[in-house]
């Protein structure tokens, strides 16, 4: 398992690690596109800001999302966790 800070956030490195069976934990870089998959397996933009605003309105403190990274015809399913801080 690799634990990195935001300065080392690289999608390609995460994809390479996943292909080798390794795990990683990293903060999310807001410059990185994240997606959900439709039933037809098409990628759709995942609006994280909208999801988190709705969670705050519904008093949900911990969010857990299944999302995808996509880069150069490669895709990686990741688990994104967001927790409201006091």
Structure description:
It is a single chain. The protein is built from 2 helices and 6 strands; from the N terminus they run E-H-E-E-E-H-E-E. It has 86 residues and is α+β, with helices and mostly antiparallel strands. The protein has one domain. The strands form 3 sheets. Strands 1-2 form a two-stranded parallel ribbon. The protein has a two-stranded antiparallel ribbon with strand order 3-4. The longest helix is centred in the middle third of the chain and has 10 residues, at 48-57. The chain is globular and about 40 Å long. It starts with a strand and ends with a strand. The mean pLDDT is 90.
Topology of helices and strands:
Layout: E1 2-4, H1 11-19, E2 24-26, E3 35-37, E4 43-45, H2 48-57, E5 62-71, E6 74-83
Parallel strand pairs: 1-2
Antiparallel strand pairs: 3-4, 5-6
Short synopsis of the structure:
This protein has helices spanning 11-19, 48-57, and strands at 2-4, 24-26, 35-37, 43-45, 62-71, 74-83. It is α+β, with helices and mostly antiparallel strands and 86 residues long.
What tags apply to this protein structure?
single chain; 86 residues; alpha+beta; two-stranded parallel sheet; two-stranded antiparallel sheet; 2 helices; 6 strands; 22% helix; 37% strand; globular
The number of helical segments is 2
Let me know the number of strands. 6
* First-to-last CA distance: 29 Å
Radius of gyration: 14 Å
């Amino acid at each position: 398992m690799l634990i990195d800070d935001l300065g080392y956030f690289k999608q390609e490195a995460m994809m390479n690690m996943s292909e080798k069976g390794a795990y990683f934990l990293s903060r999310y870089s807001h410059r990185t596109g994240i997606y959900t998959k439709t039933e037809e397996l098409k990628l759709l933009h995942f609006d994280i800001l909208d999801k988190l605003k709705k969670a705050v309105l519904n008093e949900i403190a911990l969010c857990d999302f299944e999302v995808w990274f996509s880069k150069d015809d490669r895709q990686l399913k990741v688990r994104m966790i967001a927790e409201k801080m006091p």
